[in-house]
Amino acid sequence: MTEQPKKKKKITIVPNKMPMPEQPPAERVRNYDEVPLGYSAEQAVAEAQRCLQCARPGCMDGCPVGIDIKGFLAHVADGDFRAAVNLLKETNALPAVTGRVCPQEEQCEGACALCKRYESVGIGRLERFVADWEAEQGPPEYPDLPPSTGKRVAVVGSGPAGITVAADLVKLGHAVTIFEALHEAGGVLVYGIPEFRLPKAIVRREIEYVCHLGVKLVKDFVVGSTATVDELLEEFDAVFLGTGAGLPWFLDVPGENLKGIYSANEYLTRANLMKAYLFPEYDTPIVRGKRVVTIGGGNVAMDAARTALRLGADASMIVYRRSREEMPCREEEIHHAVEEGVELNLLLTPVAFHGDENGWVSELECVRNELGEPDASGRRRPVEVPDSNFRIPIDLVVVAIGQSPNPLIPASTPGLETGRRGVVEVEPESMKTSKRGVFAGGDVATGGATVILAMGQGRVAAAAIHQYLESGDW
């Protein structure tokens, strides 16, 4: 009897993502609680079961830290959340963070096979779910660590890049000490990203996990002042610079020194790390404008504009020189901001600030733009419309147009080469700097970028540091 060929199992495709439960806009603008509420276990399993388990999963190629996304999703689909989180943590030291702030739509989810016709699998939402699930179960499981190599590494900065380097190196048997300039660890995760997008308790939880692995954390230690990089090299076998980009850019237009004009760095640091939104419970003053304009179109600008609403603004406006399609921020952030009442004033370039008799900013003067040919970024260049000047009445401004690395470390480190806007020059394949034994990654080497890109560079640097410590070759 001839054996009949087996029929292929039919796959039923669910076209859309499982909706993410969220606080209603009218409710959330009155608090600092997290906006998305997270999946239930049933919702997570249902979403993971949308994964096609492709033979050649493009999602994994799109992940800067190399997560085994296919395997992780298979575990979630089976309801084995413990296996899912353990697999995640093999390559990602901060899954609860990246599940919330990583631009998945441009990376893993953007490469999902479902994207050809449907919505991608909600990889970020599932990453967040399993990390939060683990926290609810009690103390996490820790991997077995190898014997000590006797090598010591100093990590400067406790942001995403530094934490990633530290986690990878301690798992290879090296002794790691993180030096943090501020009084709380986390870098941009604690001073830059608002509580309603990334609760600080979650950042502390992730950092505590890394410290439990054996990483030593020293706070209130400013490298370049408390000690130099050269002094660290006398005590440590290698140094990693992950100091971020904390030097804000300004517009250099008339009136920019008026009172009531903040950099996004100061505005968000006061509100987030120093908890000005809880004044007077926390004794950190902050100006609470009624008509607030934020200049810029990135995630930082959206964070500032949404923060202004929560601090009591009647009107919170974005001024951006291109159109919505060219805005570099995540679409999810624009969506949430508009839902909450942030006004998008597009195709406008600020040209001057005007003040009142007391020296406080009272108006922003802009010109209107049209879009011209694409520039080096691939986005269409804004072209000024002649004689189109007009003024917007305001009482507070937040400038969020970018930032550079602080010059303190390059200025105090002979032989450390820097490039445009003060970024530390590195070899991309190893994150080596021009100075023997010193590596760098994250925003200090790229300028302002994303959390996950910083983490990806941290993993590259950790592998290169390990090789250097073992071989001694530079």
Note down, in words, how this protein is organized:
With 474 residues, this protein is of the alpha/beta class. It folds into 3 domains: 112 residues, Fumarate Reductase Iron-sulfur Protein, Chain B, domain 2 (Orthogonal Bundle), CATH 1.10.1060.10; 162 residues, FAD/NAD(P)-binding domain (3-Layer(bba) Sandwich); 152 residues, 3-Layer(bba) Sandwich (FAD/NAD(P)-binding domain). The chain is built from 17 helices and 16 strands. The strands form 4 sheets. It has a 5-stranded parallel sheet, sandwiched between helices. Strand 1, helix 8 and strand 2 form a beta-alpha-beta unit. The longest helix is centred in the C-terminal third of the chain and has 21 residues. The chain is globular. The mean pLDDT is 93.
Low-confidence stretches: none
Kindly identify the CATH topology of the largest domain. FAD/NAD(P)-binding domain
> Whole-number radius of gyration?
24 Å
Largest sheet: 5 strands, parallel
The number of E-state strands comes to 16
Number of domains: 3
Proper CATH architecture of the largest domain:
3-Layer(bba) Sandwich
Q: Based on CA inertia axes, which overall geometry fits?
A: globular
Category from helices, strands and their pairing: alpha/beta
